[in-house]
Amino acid sequence: MPKRILEGLVVSDKGDKTVVVKVERTVLHPRLKKTVRVSKRYHAHDEANDFKAGEKIRIIECAPKSKLKTWEVLPREAN
């Protein structure tokens, strides 16, 4: 099965080797039939602490690295 790749905005870089990425997507509301934005926050592994809050990055699925981290940041040249 291919690994998922998501694109989002770094909202926090406070943790060591960890960034929190907010990924937004649009969904059709089941009753109102209106398009609404839904967001979710993912903890991603950033080995070199390269990325800072406010940057747009891509993350890829990986094996669990900790209780919350199951995503890795793709390197800058891949972004």
Key terms for this structure?
79 residues, mainly beta, OB fold (Dihydrolipoamide Acetyltransferase, E2P), 0% helix
CATH topology, anyone?
A: OB fold (Dihydrolipoamide Acetyltransferase, E2P)
Total domains, how many?
1
Q: What percent of residues adopt helix (DSSP H or I)? A: under 10%
Kindly provide the radius of gyration, computed on alpha-carbon positions and rounded to a whole number of angstroms. Answer: 14 Å
Q: How many strands?
A: 5
Shape field: globular
Q: What is the distance, rounded to the nearest whole angstrom, between the alpha carbons of the first and last residues?
A: 22 Å
Query: Which structural class matches the secondary elements?
Result: mainly beta
- Counted by DSSP, the helix tally is 0
Q: What series of H and E elements makes up the topology?
A: EEEEE
- Largest pleated sheet: 5 strands, mixed, barrel
The overall average pLDDT, rounded, is 95
What's the architecture in CATH terms? Answer: Beta Barrel
Low-confidence stretches: none
Output the CATH class name. Mainly Beta
CATH superfamily: Nucleic acid-binding proteins
**Content of β-strand:** over 45%
GO biological process, one term: translation
Function: One of the primary rRNA binding proteins, it binds specifically to the 5'-end of 16S ribosomal RNA.
Protein name: Small ribosomal subunit protein uS17
Family: Belongs to the universal ribosomal protein uS17 family.
